[in-house]
Design brief:
CATH architecture of the largest domain in chain B: 3-Layer(aba) Sandwich
Radius of gyration of chain B: 25 Å
Mean pLDDT of chain A: 90
Shape of chain A: globular
Shape of chain B: globular
Structural class of chain B: alpha/beta
Largest interface: A-B, 28 and 33 residues
Strand content of chain A: under 5%
Distance between the termini of chain A: 13 Å
Number of helices of chain A: 14
Largest sheet of chain B: 6 strands, mixed
Oligomer: heterodimer
Distance between the termini of chain B: 56 Å
Structural class of chain A: mainly alpha
Number of helices of chain B: 17
Number of domains of chain A: 2
Helix content of chain A: over 70%
Radius of gyration of chain A: 21 Å
CATH topology of the largest domain in chain A: ABC transporter involved in vitamin B12 uptake, BtuC
Largest sheet of chain A: 2 strands, antiparallel
Chain lengths: 375, 511
């Protein structure tokens, strides 16, 4: 029993290592600073979207519309900047508002009209795709006018200078330390059981080593990408929401047993609309980053990203029927998914084979979910 | 020679020994009752017999006709002639009775299903049991008692020699129970052996030939029914004597009784399932005062659960009537508002409506009262939450390794305590308990009754819904019997007799 649990906990890191080892032996550039930095940017994009999807899946719902939504929201901001000459900040705020509005509307339709989320968001997938192509008029819309950089265009091309990167890394280390220590102290003050000092220290050391290694690798190339900070911020916020707020508890409760959640006095409808609004936020963030990464909004931006996000969640141990999953798992899942896609691109695998590989990974992940879900 | 026997069966789960060297014999053609408190190991024993816990996951031997058997799964057990009927039916609601009876082994003609033959045979089987059900009726149109019998019909058609029934009467009406018992006696006369698990000892004594008592995973004793008594069996189950089954301390009337206003007052309440449908609850008026237990009784379908769910804000459409909660009018109820205003409901079906089974006990306990555990605007104070939970965890004496234990892994009685704890943690003024002791054992029942006494002692009002007349009469200060959605009669303590209550439940006001 113990060993099985250990195996489950180690499965993701091991799978990640195996994937990296495979690609590294095929193409040494895979682990080079340039490719790793690129991988980190792609990981930031997939990871941010997956974190939004994670909260949706926790409640037992699903959102198939996010891929088209990513294109649409990125497209709206790009058109405002390029065609209408808006400042990037204003364009992004408007696009943000549009995303939150659209996702609130979908959430409201799902809970008030009792239409399954699968259908509403499948409709959303098509509608957003159509709107997207209308907005950009089936053309390519750059995210910046002329050569002038703006906040939008630098999202995935701005790197923190080495020292700032190191300072941020150390700051994160210190923050993790303070949080872990503070929670231990509080628990001890209340006479509650705590994990052993050695284990806490080992976890903290592992986490800080990972953060530092990340900073050092990034510094080898150009520095810590701005997009990684977006992901880190999102992950921190989602972690706090799911672990430390009533809202997060309610997500798990609704996914675990919706009827019991209603009878426990949880405003289930409000929570569900809220979780779709948050999905809107991550869609907007991802939309900006992925459009900026492409340099321009084109008709293919965001294609199939909903499936990558779902796969990342499921690989990371999120249950499709709701009620189970962790932020750390989702981060690992996104990393595995990104490594696979990045590695295949690096090896110049044909698009046909890439589609098939993505499909196989998604299917395997869901199969695993079904296997583990059966108790 | 025993038909089926267990020799020193031991089954361990992480952290618990569920069965500890249990011995058990079943003779051909006998009805053998298994009695024991929740968590005594009854369900585990059955799961071993049924092949749900396959050979190799336990120690000890299982013998059929004195031959050791190694069941790898349910199929092997069925082949050996053992069929288990649990509380959760293994029937498919959308399929017909006949299709369910022949599920997986439909009569065929070539590669096609022979529907005529299937319906003909199903009709014959149903007729054997004296069941007036059409073989073509979908299962969902059947009542609980009929579903139970369809399961038995299906088992008997598979040439079952050992029928295992786990709490078969928990959801049946008295009449359905007597039909079921008659069928079991008839099957016994035909040579089928039966293992019967029930918390209702009067049923056990009406039916069983022998009684085996389990306690804390051990087989304590096997008694001949005609040489023992109910108190004796209870004593064996709990390992001590229980002096008083219903320790109600009646509410003491105070001097200016009429000046005390009621906590919950309902006037002329008429409710339908949804708008536009005919009402299911008609013109109900009643009230509860602080420190009082108001009992609600009635037959299945009288509308007791619906009434509670409606008052709580989770069911139905109010056509007319007025509800006053703590002297404030209360319209547009919802569970969230009810809880905020001091009205809670502990539901009957705890697995379905009560608990998030895969989450820990602590998660479930605080689920309704999280706003009281927050710090800053929206942050859960996990230490405070733990301390609050622990208070209820300990005072309710929930038997689990700790708050971190998964709620789904607890026994029925302990799950019930978690549901109660969740309700009580909201600090309610009015507590509605819908069948709070259904399916839980004598010891746990007593603890629930003590808890109810404590609640009323603190000045809260309790509404107790129960199908068991002794419980209702033992615990209530006042009893209202519902009959088909109407009040059939209201009785003060001292006035109730089983005859009067039953007459009222059937809509015949007692003379």
């Amino acid at each position: 029993m113990k060993s099985r649990q250990l195996l489950q906990n180690l499965a993701m890191p091991l799978a990640l290592l195996a994937i990296c080892a495979f690609f590294a032996t095929r193409e040494s550039a895979f682990l080079g600073p340039r490719n790793l930095t690129q991988l980190i940017v792609e990981f930031s994009i997939t990871g941010t979207l997956a974190l939004g999807m994670f909260m949706i899946l926790l409640t037992g719902q699903i959102d198939l519309s996010v891929g088209s939504g990513v294109g649409l929201i990125g497209g709206i901001a790009a058109v405002l900047v390029f065609h209408h000459g808006w400042p990037a900040e204003a364009a992004m705020i408007v696009a943000f508002a549009a995303a939150i509005g659209l996702w609130c509307a979908m959430g409201a339709l799902i809970v008030r009209q009792r239409i399954p989320s699968f259908i509403i968001t499948l409709g959303g997938l098509l509608i957003f795709k159509g709107l997207f192509w209308l907005v950009i008029e089936n053309s390519t819309v750059p995210v910046a006018r002329g050569d002038a950089d703006n906040l939008y265009s630098i999202l995935t091309t701005y790197y923190l200078s080495k020292y700032v990167g190191l300072a941020v890394g150390l700051g994160v280390m210190a923050l993790l330390f303070i949080l872990a220590w503070g929670s231990r102290q509080a628990r001890q003050a209340h006479g509650l059981p705590v994990t052993s000092t050695a284990k806490t220290a080992a976890i903290w050391l592992g986490a800080t080593a990972a953060v530092l290694a990340l900073v050092i690798v990034c510094n080898e190339f150009r520095g810590v990408p701005l997009s990684l900070l977006v992901l880190a911020g999102t992950a921190g916020a989602v972690y706090f929401l799911t672990r430390h707020t009533p809202f997060g508890r309610y997500l798990y409760a609704i996914g675990g047993n919706e009827e019991a959640a209603v009878l426990s006095g949880i405003a289930v409808n409000r929570v569900l609309i809220g979780v779709y609004a948050l999905m809107g936020v991550t869609v907007a963030l991802t939309g900006f980053m992925t459009t900026a990464y492409s340099g321009a909004s084109t008709t293919t931006v965001g294609d199939l990203m909903e499936l990558d996000a779902i796969a990342a969640c499921v690989i990371g141990g999120t249950a499709l029927r709701g009620g189970r999953g962790t932020v750390v798992g989702v981060i690992f899942g996104a990393l595995i998914m990104t490594s696979l896609l990045n590695g295949m691109t690096l090896l110049a695998v044909s698009p046909e084979a890439k589609f098939i590989a993505r499909g196989v990974v998604l299917t395997l992940a869901v199969w695993m979910d079904v296997k583990l879900g059966r108790r | 020679m025993p038909l089926l026997s267990a020799r020193r069966l031991t089954k361990r789960f992480p952290g618990v020994v569920a069965l500890d060297a249990v011995n058990f014999d079943l003779k051909a053609g006998e009805i053998h009752a298994l009695c024991g408190e929740n968590g005594a190991g009854k369900s585990t024993l059955i799961k071993l017999l049924a092949g749900i816990h396959p050979h190799g996951t336990y120690e000890g031997d299982l013998l059929v006709n004195d031959q050791p058997v190694t069941f790898r799964g349910i199929r092997d057990a069925e082949t050996a002639g053992i069929a288990v009927i649990t509380q959760e039916f293994a029937l498919i609601d959308e399929l017909s009775v006949a299709e369910n009876i022949f599920l997986g082994r439909a009569p065929r003609r070539g590669w096609r299903v022979d529907w005529l033959e299937m319906h003909r045979r199903a009709a014959g089987l149903l007729a054997d049991f004296g069941l007036a059900i059409s073989p073509e009726a979908p299962i969902r149109t059947l009542g609980v008692g009929q579903k139970q019998l369809v399961e038995i019909v299906r088992a008997m058609d598979k040439r079952t020699r050992v029928l295992v029934l786990d709490e078969p009467t928990a959801a049946l009406t008295e009449q359905e129970v007597s039909v079921l018992l008659d069928h079991l006696r008839r099957l016994r006369a035909q040579g089928t052996a039966c293992i019967y698990i029930s918390h209702k000892l009067d049923e056990v004594f009406a039916l069983a030939d022998r009684i085996t008592v389990l306690r804390d995973g051990r087989s304590v004793t096997t008694l001949e029914r005609n040489q023992t008594t109910i108190p004796e069996v209870i004593k064996q189950m709990v390992g001590r004597e229980i002096a008083d089954l219903f320790p109600r301390r009646p509410r003491v009337a105070v001097a200016n009784e009429s000046a005390i206003s009621s906590l919950l007052d309902v006037q002329h309440l008429t409710v339908a399932r949804s708008a536009g449908e005919p009402p299911l609850l008609h013109d109900l008026s009643f009230s509860v005062r602080p420190g009082e237990i108001l009992g609600f009784g009635g037959l299945m379908g009288a509308g007791r659960t619906e009434l509670m769910m409606h008052l709580f804000g989770a069911w139905g459409h109010r056509i007319s009537g007025k509800v006053t909660l703590r002297e404030q009018p209360y319209a547009d109820a919802s569970p969230r508002v009810s809880i905020a205003r001091g009205l809670v409901l502990a539901t009957e079906d705890r697995r379905r409506y009560g608990l998030v089974l895969e989450q820990p006990v602590g998660f479930n306990l605080s689920l309704s009262s999280l706003p009281a555990c927050t710090r800053a605007p929206m942050r859960i104070d996990q230490e405070k939450e733990y301390v609050r939970n622990q208070h209820f965890f300990e005072s309710l004496r929930i038997k689990a390794p700790g708050q971190h234990a998964r709620a789904g892994g607890l026994s029925g009685g302990n799950q019930q305590k978690v549901v109660l704890g969740k309700a009580l943690m909201t600090n309610p003024a009015v507590v509605m308990l819908d069948e709070p002791t259904r399916g839980i054992d004598v010891g746990a029942k007593l603890e629930v009754y003590e808890l109810i006494n404590r609640l009323t002692g603190e000045g809260r009002a309790v509404i107790l819904v129960s199908s068991e007349l002794p419980e209702l009469m033992g615990m209530s200060d006042r009893i209202i019997m519902l009959a088909a959605g109407r009040i059939g009669g209201e009785f003060a303590r001292g006035e109730f007799t089983p005859e009067k209550l039953l007459a009222a439940a059937m809509g015949r006001a007692a003379a």
